[in-house]
Amino acid sequence: MSYAYLFKYIIIGDTGVGKSCLLLQFTDKRFQPVHDLTIGVEFGARMITIDGKQIKLQIWDTAGQESFRSITRSYYRGAAGALLVYDITRRDTFNHLTTWLEDARQHSNSNMVIMLIGNKSDLEARREVKKEEGEAFAREHGLIFMETSAKTAANVEEAFINTAKEIYQKIQDGVFDINNEANGIKIGPQHSPANQNMPSGGGGGNQGGNCC
Amino acid sequence: MSDDEAFASAEEGEEEAKGSKEKSTVVEEQSKSGQAAPAEKGGAKPKGKQQQRKKKGKAQGKATAEEKGKASQKTSREKSSVKADTSTVQAKEFQPTPAASVESQAPVSQSSELVQPSTKDSIKADSVSDKQDSKHEDVKDISTTEGLPDTKYETPRGQKQEVLTDQDADKSVESKSETQPDKDSEISAKSAGDVRQSLSKNTTGEDARLGNSGEQSIPRDADGASPNSGEEKLAEDGAKDEGSWNWGWGSSILNAATNSLETFSSQVGEGLTTIIDSVESSLGVPSPEDVAKADSPTELDTVPGEEDTVTAQPHEKEASEEALAAKRAAETQKGEEDKEAEQTATPAAQEEEDAAKAEGSWLSGWGMSSISNMGKSLVNKSQNLMNTGFEKAENLAAGGLDILETIGKKTYTTLTEHDPGLRRAREFLHLRDEKPSLSSMLREAQEQADVQAKRDEESEEALKVNFTALFEDNQGLAHLEALEMLSNRSERKVQSLLSAMEEDMLENIRPQLVEIKDTFQQAFEKEEAGEESEHDFSKLVTENLSELHLGTAPDKLNKVQENVRQWIADFYSHEDHSEISDAKEVQQRAIQSLADVTSKAVEQFHKAGELVLMQKDEEKSYTHRAQSLAKLSSVLVTEVDILASKFSQCLNKIGEEKKTTEEVNPMVTSVYLEASNASGYIQDAFQLLLPVLQHAAIQSALALSL
């Protein structure tokens, strides 16, 4: 429930590469072979522990469809981490990475940690993009790289947690200003005494006001 | 002047030493295997060195009072080093470790000095013995037999110089030429090497100086000889005339100054001698003469040139030994020699000796000498005394600091050795009564644990009934945030599109935008007038959503609402409500339900906004969509109100049944409060859609115009 930090992630990439499946695997530890088309953005959240600290990952799973691009772009802002996903069985999804990366870099803060993910690693037989190519792309653009399988859950945890570790390290290094929510990092509410004194009420009203 | 001299001699100490060695060897014609190397060295450039020395002497001769200060600084430095030597010697017995650490360099220099002098000593001793009386030989013997070599070395040095200066003063008095005394003093002060030189050249001069055993006539001889010997020097020293003038007629003033200085230095000296006395006694050297000697090098080391030491040795020893012996035996028995010796030794060694031992002895010595002699010697003395005074003061200061440092270090090491980390010391320094007992510590820990557990429990409980937390958990907050981002982006787009829009186009679209805006504003008013009558939530929601023509199904929203209603229905259907749940559970359930519904409502609005922007469906006007959304928000707010009142009824029922109205009342309040919160979120979400709808309307208008 309570957490020290909240990191905002975004998952981006072509439609059908398995973004929502990755999220579902990470948050619910299950795989859904047929997934509804994501409209705009969906959300998932999970607690992880890094360096003994509870960190809540709030993941914004964006729609991959081209028609949503203009909308999803508006969600990039304020993300601390991004999972840029392609499908190893579809080369075109790999070829579009540059566009996605440009988009992400343009609409997010420069310190955002980007993890490149080659998904569907379980479908080795249909592989079109070699792992080396993914590695080379990541190296070239300064990304972290992993091949995952949302179906088998291979590397899914690692992908999310390693990104969080990188962000956490950046916080430790003072790169991220945790007091600036535009960085996609919030400090958890667990230490605020208001929670104990207000089982309900007051705070909520304030929250409502903030949203205007 | 003596300062200058001291400086000069200090600088040239080494060179002179070599030179003197060379000369002495030449004079003595003694070839020693051990001295072969230095002799050669000296032999290679004896004249050059001499010239160098002269030049230096000249330079110093030019020096006036200002330079003196400079020189004194340097001399003081030298002295300090000398002092360091002696102090280390003392410290060796006293506090070996700290002394060594503080003055690590001192021992080295000391040792080097020790080594060097020894050879010279022998050389000089030989030369002295050759040239001089058996008396001197005795002195030499004494010096060699002495237990503390380094102190002895230094002692002679200073005293020798003094002797020389005294002599020179005498000479100058006799000659009455103002230039001469300076020269002489310079010569003498410069180095014993010069003296040596002169000695080797002019046996008379040598005799005069070395053999100034007592007769006052000898100084005159020396005076006569000195011009010869100092011929070279005469030319150089012209510059010092002025200084000499001052010395000449200012002697009376200086006398007074000397007296005061003497008292000062004697006092200081006393202090030092007492210190040294104790040290020496601890070292097992009881004789006060040694003390005096040990002391004198420190103060009188104005001429550290090692030659001086050599040449001075016989004199000094003779003087001091004899004087002491004489004093001890009987003061009346003093011969002229003794007196002279005393006189020569007076400046520093005697002062201290005498101060420490018998004042009368040196006073009597004073009385014996001629007034003029005394005046001149006083001048010299005053200089020496000034040096001595400075030196002593500095020694004292430096010594004091050293001691403080030593004490500090010792204290620290002692503490740290036995108490690593100074833990005990800290404990000791801290208040002891603060130390808690085990039982109190345990009690404290228990209390803390209880408080922590209670707090955790409370926070968990609090989170269960914290609408905001639940709203966040249901991703309602995320949707609201996303909707806000979308809204902001649309707002910017609207501004930019309108500003870039042509006038007629703007006129066409303006009514529609105003209409949408009015719809949103009226929705507020309607809601305010809305009553809490029962409604068919799912029907209304589905109806309004389909009116949007966005293809979104209100599945989630309807399902959540259904569940909530079901729970409430279940609650009412039971006769004994308390069996199902207690008030707290009902409250949690109520707030959870409100959060769920609100989250889904916000999500619905968010999705609607996204889809409005996405779909270019022109069947329904944006004004109509805005009205549908307004109705939807109204339905949602109404539903929230109904749910709140129903939950409140449940709570009240439990309160009535269990007679815990007081306990239930705040819960009812909280449920109503959260319901208003939920309504707030829903209305906020709805209002965020205004720019989105306007944006969509402009987009479609632009699309149509193309």
TrEMBL record, chain A:
GO cellular component: Golgi apparatus
Any one biological process term the GO annotation gives: vesicle-mediated transport
Molecular function in Gene Ontology: GTP binding; GTPase activity
Family to which the UniProt record says this protein belongs: Belongs to the small GTPase superfamily. Rab family.
Keyword Protein transport: yes
Chief location: membrane
Annotated spans, Disordered: 188-212
Keywords: ER-Golgi transport, Golgi apparatus, GTP-binding, Lipoprotein, Membrane, Nucleotide-binding, Prenylation, Protein transport, Transport
Protein name: Ras-related protein Rab-2A
Cellular localization per UniProt: Endomembrane system; Golgi apparatus
Family annotation (InterPro entries): P-loop_NTPase, Rab_GTPases_membrane_traffic, Small_GTP-bd, Small_GTPase
PROSITE patterns linked to this entry: RAB, RAS, RHO
NCBIfam families: small_GTP
Gly residues compositional bias, start-end: 200-212
Top-rank taxon: Eukaryota
Membrane topology category: Lipid-anchor
UniProtKB/TrEMBL annotation, chain B:
Sequence ranges of Acidic residues compositional bias: 1-15
Coiled coil: none
Region of interest called Disordered, as start-end residue ranges on this chain: 1-251, 279-361
UniProt KW keywords: Phosphoprotein
Feature: compositional bias, Basic and acidic residues: 16-31, 64-82, 121-160, 168-187, 230-243, 314-337
Biased composition (Basic residues): 44-59
Superkingdom to which the source organism belongs: Eukaryota
Compositionally biased residues, Polar residues: 102-120
Keyword Phosphoprotein: yes
Family, similarity comment: Belongs to the FAM114 family.
Name used for this protein in its record: Protein FAM114A2
